[in-house]
Amino acid sequence: MEPGSTCAVFGVGGVGLSVVMGCKAAGASRIIAIDINNEKLAKAKELGATDCINPQDFNKPVHKVLIEMTGYGVDYSFEVVSLIETMTAALASCQNNYRLSVMVGVPPAG
User: Fold this and answer.
1) What are the structural domains of the chain?
2) pTM for this one?
3) Fewer beta carbons under 10 A from the terminal one: N or C of the chain?
4) Cα(79)–Cα(29) distance, rounded to whole angstroms?
5) Per-residue confidence at 44, pLDDT binned at 50, 70, 90?
């Protein structure tokens, strides 16, 4: 990741919070934490997230919220929930054609 990058972290449990700290250490200019637990979002903010989103607060898909926030999508997305829905959203939130989405874990079988 280059300094000044825009990042989205889907899921801010233990691993997701580590990703937030890593993005901060790498010099990301914007770190957007996404989770349905507001307590976890508060912790993410303490550890370096610049923005926090609870998808339940919106009437549209979270990737559309991220694209509206950034104007074009994020440079890097990290998915640490291991659900197909969040994996799809993480991929859809990246800039088209030339950015990176990292999936940590494997979704449940089926």
Assistant:
1) 6-103 (3.40.50.720)
2) 0.94
3) C
4) 19
5) very high
pLDDT per residue over 47-78, tens digit each? 999 999 999 999 999 999 999 999 999 999 99
Task: Indicate whether 100 pLDDT > 70.
Answer: yes
Whole-number Å distance between alpha carbons of 63 and 57: 13
| Cβ within 8 Å of residue 84, ≥6 positions away | 107
What are the CB-based long-range contacts (under 8 Å, 24+) for 92-101?
92/61, 92/63, 93/8, 93/62, 93/63, 93/66, 93/67, 99/73, 99/74, 99/75, 100/75, 100/76, 101/76, 101/77
